[in-house]
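Support case: user asked for a sample of complex input and structure output to validate their parser. Sending the pair below.
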Amino acid sequence: MATSTRSEPAAGAEPENPLVEGLERLPVPNTTLVIFGGTGDLSRRKLLPALYNLAHEGALPERFNLVAVSRRDLPDDDFRGMAREAIESFSRRTPDATVLEALLERFIYVPTAFDEEAGYKALAERLQELDDEAGTPLNRAFYLSTAPEFFPVIIQALGAQRLHRHPDADVRVIIEKPFGTDLASARSLNDVVLDRFREHQVFRIDHYLGKETVQNMLAFRFANYMFEPLWNRNYIDHVQITASEDLGIGTRAGYYDHSGALRDLVQNHMLQLLTLLCMEPPTAFDADSVRDEKVKVLHAIEPPTPEQVRTNTVRAQYGPGVVSGEEVPGYLQESDVPASSHTETFAALNLEVHNWRWAGVPFHLRTGKRLARKVTEIAVMLKPVPHLAFAQDGSVGVQPNQLILTMQPNEGVSLSLGAKIPGSRMRIRPVNMEFLYGTAFVSQSPEAYERLIMDAMRGDATLFTRNDEVDAQWEIIDPILQGWQESSEAPATYAAGSTGPEEADALLHEGRRWRGL
Amino acid sequence: MDEVWSARDTTPGAIEAALRELLKQRHQENEAYAPARVLNLVVIADADFRGEVENRLERVGRYHPSRTVVCAVEPGRTTMDAWASMACDIDPQPGSLAVCREQVELKLGPGHLRTLHTVVGSLLVSDLATLVWSPHGYAEAVDALSRLAQVVLIDSLDEPDVGASLSRAEELAGRAYVVDLAWLRSTPWRERIAATFDPPAWRRSLQEISSVTVRHRHDSAAAGVLFLGWLYSRLGWRSAELSAGRAGELSGRARARRGEVAIRLEPVAQQGAPGLGGVTVQTASGGEVSLDRSAGGLRAVKRRPRGETAEWTLLGASRGESGILGEGVRQALLRDPTYRPALAAARAMVA
């Protein structure tokens, strides 16, 4: 079990800064951001463009430096050239040349293997030089964007070089997913991390939490009184959470075949959606108040028994099929996938939240690759009306109300209602009341990583996963992984481009169906 | 692709019916066309400068209002002609939606302005916030719309007399929420000064500020006074009237808790963009911070009380004037609690 849970309260009783009142962008402490894996795919596609966009908007700290650490032996200028190319290719806005050049000047590269002591000494020297240049100790944020096997190596090396503390400044460590591959490895990693860092210094990324539409679930639930009376077992029949993709694994076979759908999406993103849906109102919108409530939800989900793994979960692999009119290979035919692989590209499971509000309400989760459509949504299916005075003939009839929270592709909220079909008879059919973000806000949403990097530099952990939260997520997922691993049965199959395997239909109780994709 | 309707000597009822028909046609074409429902914008402009205003509106990028009603005022006109269109950004792809914006242009005469609410009222989308922008004056039209509009967009730099400009802003602020472009131009400066004084060591020195100099484009004194009004109101300084110097500068002394603060506003030659050009803040213990416009952001120079000086660039792209207007539209849906106190302090400085 992980040792520490709650973050420590912010120390110090400094006077308030009266100048920040009313400002949309709050000051960010001067920071040197160190990205381990600075030349990697995530860094090029997401992190460097996110930093550019923050710079463009004037949102970076007054004094900001980026130190990229990677194994490739590159001079600073070559790294800057690579970073320029990445930003020009992947930024959500066309870069302003002067801002980009000024930002690149703040980029430094330190080549080293992640287990090489001399590399960390060189890093420490560069960091000290940057402090000296600023004339003040700068906060340090170490972003671990490497293969996960290097996370403990880097953490220990930072500790060995005393880089986990910095006099008169804050040190933070940002850890990419996956945080462990099972319960034991997650606990082991947490032990290593918390041996060197305190919980309030640790920012475990689940980039789903950085998405505006995911954060809006909190606003939807806790800023609208009308839903609260319905938000419980008395009115809700069941909930379906779907995260489907139409794409296959692409060139990620090396990662994906070791991960699978359950680790890739369910353990982190989908359980996050479930906790946001089910949590009680926090007393305040601060990191620990929000995360305390989320952890309570996770603790209310009993880890499945071996029997429940057999009856309440389905794993499957996509076979050959047709997607958007084109024939595509099955998972086992994808390049670099072992022919004997049992890795699931589809996972579906039933969970129950055993607390006063949710007892008896089934939560059905499904995720998969190469499905009919890309969609991420939560469907809250309400109970049918107790008595119906209308005739049902001549129409599809009265259906239970459905509240659909869509994260992608059309972010919004949709409520299905029964309405009278125009005409002389009293016939009813469902109609939708739609709210679409794209039509209701003029602002463009920032990329999730922009928000998360900014929050980490400001020390706000609300949108990051706490150690006990990770632990509780793995406690739910671990028995499923074990059950699947010990099973001699091959995964079910489904045709690429379909809505998933037939076996998943059996997870839903009689009379219930998965929503169409 | 734009759907367009037009009519001469028409009525608000006919225009409203035409808008409904345009939407219906679009829906019949494809259900994925969805009208934006964010806010209404009513613009009152000289007919001669209508094109210029529309060009500015075109360049606000993603901050388009949902329904824009442009009232182009032609001297001598007594009838009303109208033109309505619905523009959608993209053709909808399967599984996505195309957001549409509606625009109405009215050609009307000065006689319509005092009762403009009776014309515009039925053309607004119900339950959406309504923003009024009247860049060429027409105060009577803005006053007529005060029952319909929750937000008024102004630019305090438009009126050369700073005192008159801020008086009008204060009067409007008593009736509606005011979004002032002159204030928005100072946002990066306010953010950066707030950030500079945010580290604990510097935060304590806020009480020791001994002088503030604000540099501005020759026609942007109102922006400088508003910036100073912000400092006054946030730091609890008491206003004293500024006096004008020979070179167009304004100066005076503010009363802070621990003493007086020397205040100075200086026009800067050869500044292209309107608004502020630089800010220098000094503290009694000898610290100094200067921010000035430069390529790629603001150039910062910080001198510590012991005398060491550091220089660096605060990164940030200029939004340009069309970006400022877009920001004004966006701000119409937000509420900045610091503008009115800053405006009141600024008014007292130039009373």
